[in-house]
Structures are given as C-alpha cells and as structure tokens.
C-alpha cells in the first residue's frame, strides 16, 4: 500500500518584533556607567600590580626621609614643650637641625653634635634632666626599632645621616610630653 505523505500542518510563523531603539541615557547615567567601568579597570590593575610585584622585597619609605626643607640658624622651634624632659629633647632636636649632626663623637671639629651631645648641651648642666632625656630617647628608639638598640650613642653611630636620629629626638620629645616628663 502506497503511503501518502501526511499533509503538512501549517505552523504559524512567529512575528518578529523590531528591536526598540536604544533609549538615550542622561549625562548622570553615562557618568555612572563610566565610573563603574573605571573602578573595575582600576581594581584589576591594582590586583595585577600586587601579583606582579609580590616577589620583590621592599621596605616602606618614610616621607620624612624624602621631604626636607632648608633650615637656617634662626629657625626657632614653634612652641616649647611645657614639660622639662620634653623641652630638652625638643631643644636638642632643634640644635641638630641648625648646628648639624655627627657620629663617633659628642661634638666634631665643625661643632656638629651627636644625639647625646645635643642633649648634654641642652640640659645645661642638670645631670638628672640629661639622664631623663637620654632614657626617654632610648625608650622611644626601642619602641620603634626593638630591644636591639643597646644605647643612645650606639644608635646614633649606626646611621650615616642624621635624618633618623633627629626624627627619633623629635618623637622622644612628643613621647616625653605625652608622659608629662
């Protein structure tokens, strides 16, 4: 028996709808999209930088070591600390700024002083005040650099420039003032 093909059932063709024209975005919407896209790109760049530089050992840079201003001998400390030990440390810091820093001697041939030499001259003969300022300076350096700091002179002589020792004098003055010394 011959088979006749089944009549095709007419399938309705779906009507295609024309795509709606893109809506005009406001300036705020466009800026929000650009901000989101840039944030994603910056996050990706930051991550790539972290991954690419993770193997490089680095030490943080203290901007105090980088940013300097010229000092003149007439530069005066802004306001002296009201506590005696803090005032001695502040004056010693100022003396090193204006008179120079040295290592290996209390005073060098040019008149520059080490940290302890500056404290000694600024204590003005008061051995108790000198000892208190030196102890506060040693405490401040140990807080920053650990217990490996054995003395103020050894810390002073371990540096090739006066930037770190002078910064420690300034920090010790702040610490002494905080403790009311």
Can you describe this structure?
The chain has 181 residues and is mainly alpha-helical. It folds into two domains: 26-58; 63-178, no CATH class. The protein is 53% helix and 0% strand. The chain has seven helices and no strands. The chain has helices spanning 27-53, 63-66, 84-99, 115-122, 127-145, 152-157, 163-178. The termini are far apart. The model has no long low-confidence stretch (mean pLDDT 82).
Q: Rg from C-alpha positions?
A: 35 Å
Low-confidence stretches: none
The number of distinct structural domains comes to 2
**What is the count of helical runs?**
7
Spell the H/E element sequence: HHHHHHH
Q: Percent of residues in beta strands?
A: under 5%
Mean pLDDT comes to 82
| Termini separation | 119 Å
Largest sheet: none
Give the total of beta strands: 0
Structural class: mainly alpha
Task: Give the CA-based shape.
Answer: rod-shaped
Helix content range: 40-55%
Question: Which key terms come to mind for this protein?
Answer:
0% strand; 7 helices; mainly alpha; 2 domains; 181 residues; 53% helix
SSE blueprint and pairings:
Elements lengths: L26 H27 L9 H4 L17 H16 L15 H8 L4 H19 L6 H6 L5 H16 L3
Brief overview, please?
With 181 residues, the protein is mainly alpha-helical.
């Amino acid at each position: 028996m011959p088979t006749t093909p089944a009549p095709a059932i007419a399938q309705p063709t779906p009507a295609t709808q024309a795509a709606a024209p893109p809506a005009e975005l406001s300036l705020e919407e466009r800026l929000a999209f650009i901000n989101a896209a840039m944030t994603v790109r910056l996050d990706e760049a930051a991550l790539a930088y972290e991954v690419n530089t993770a193997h490089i050992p680095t030490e943080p840079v203290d901007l105090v070591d980088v940013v300097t201003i010229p000092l003149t001998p007439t530069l005066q400390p802004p306001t002296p600390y009201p506590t005696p030990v803090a005032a001695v440390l502040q004056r010693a810091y100022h003396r090193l700024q204006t008179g120079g820093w040295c290592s290996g001697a209390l005073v060098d041939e040019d008149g520059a002083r080490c940290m302890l030499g500056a404290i000694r001259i600024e204590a003005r003969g008061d051995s108790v005040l000198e000892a208190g300022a030196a102890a506060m300076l040693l405490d401040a350096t140990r807080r920053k650099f650990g217990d490996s700091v054995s003395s103020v002179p050894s810390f002073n002589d371990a540096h090739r420039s006066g930037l770190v020792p002078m910064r420690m004098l300034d920090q010790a003055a702040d610490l002494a003032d905080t403790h009311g010394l």
